[in-house]
């Protein structure tokens, strides 16, 4: 058996595999940093501080590494991009009261879906925090959660291309149902207070 062509290309094969492995490590490292910066942005945003700067750095880093990413390694960036989407959505809700589209963010469709589902978890935290403070904005946040869930529910059939989407949608459903119950309870409480005030004034 002639192994000449095989042996002759071994160095090139090892070099190609080595370069692919180096790129893999680079992507994993960058992905971890994007996740860290995105998490920092979310924490700052929900605490009333400016989460824009770490988000900007995460956005620039992800854009840079995506540019030279081999297609076969692109999946390594999905989690990082979904975390970035989550941070983008949270910051946009806090600062502008709106939900950016996946076209606006330039995100991959699967990463966007996973990210916005995670963002709904943050909206849930915001809802209960505002509700506990008696802030009327809690009802606006609930309405956004409810509408988002309704729009995203039909996309559950794409769980095979957005791994984890179906599980996340189930979690969101429980979150929305729990928030709806909390809203109903708060409205009953307010109605009772108003009724008692009316009795005192009679």
Helix % is over 70%
Count the beta strands.
Answer: 0
pLDDT < 50 stretches: none
CATH topology of the largest domain: Methane Monooxygenase Hydroxylase, Chain G, domain 1
Largest sheet: none
Task: Output the radius of gyration.
Answer: 23 Å
Number of domains: 2
Distance between the termini: 106 Å
- Helical run tally: 8
Assign an overall shape.
elongated
Mean pLDDT over the residues: 87
Order of helices and strands: HHHHHHHH
Top CATH class of the largest domain: Mainly Alpha
Helix vs. strand class: mainly alpha
Oligomer classification = single chain
- Per CATH, the architecture of the largest domain is Up-down Bundle
Strand content: under 5%
Question: In words, what does this structure look like?
Answer:
There is one protein chain. With 202 residues, the protein is mainly α. The chain has two domains: 6-107, Methane Monooxygenase Hydroxylase, Chain G, domain 1; 109-202, Methane Monooxygenase Hydroxylase, Chain G, domain 1, CATH 1.20.58. Helix content is 78%, strand content 0%. It contains eight helices and no strands. Helix 3 (52-67) packs antiparallel against helix 4. The longest helix has 37 residues, at 10-46. The radius of gyration is 23 Å and the shape is elongated. It starts with a helix and ends with a helix.
Describe the secondary-structure layout:
Layout: H1 4-8, H2 10-46, H3 52-67, H4 78-96, H5 102-105, H6 109-132, H7 137-152, H8 165-201
Provide a quick synopsis of the model.
The protein is mainly α and 202 residues long.
Salient structural properties:
202 residues, mainly alpha, Methane Monooxygenase Hydroxylase, Chain G, domain 1, 2 domains, 0% strand
């Amino acid at each position: 058996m002639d192994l000449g062509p095989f042996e002759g290309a071994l160095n090139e094969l090892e070099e190609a595999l080595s370069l692919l492995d180096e790129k893999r490590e680079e992507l994993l490292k960058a992905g971890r940093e994007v996740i860290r910066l995105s998490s920092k942005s979310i924490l700052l945003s929900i605490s009333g501080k400016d989460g824009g700067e770490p988000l900007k750095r995460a956005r620039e880093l992800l854009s840079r590494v995506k540019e030279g990413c081999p297609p076969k390694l692109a999946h390594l960036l999905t989690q990082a991009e979904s975390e970035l989407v989550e941070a983008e959505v949270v910051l946009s809700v806090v600062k502008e009261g709106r939900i950016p589209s996946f076209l606006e963010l330039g995100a991959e469709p699967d990463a966007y879906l996973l990210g916005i589902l995670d963002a709904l978890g943050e909206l849930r935290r915001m809802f209960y925090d505002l509700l506990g403070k008696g802030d009327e904005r809690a009802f606006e946040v609930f309405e956004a959660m409810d509408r988002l869930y309704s729009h995203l529910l039909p996309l559950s059939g794409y769980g095979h291309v957005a791994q984890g989407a179906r599980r996340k949608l189930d979690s969101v459903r429980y979150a929305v149902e729990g928030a709806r119950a909390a809203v109903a309870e708060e409205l009953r409480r307010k109605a009772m207070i108003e009724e008692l005030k009316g009795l005192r004034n009679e």
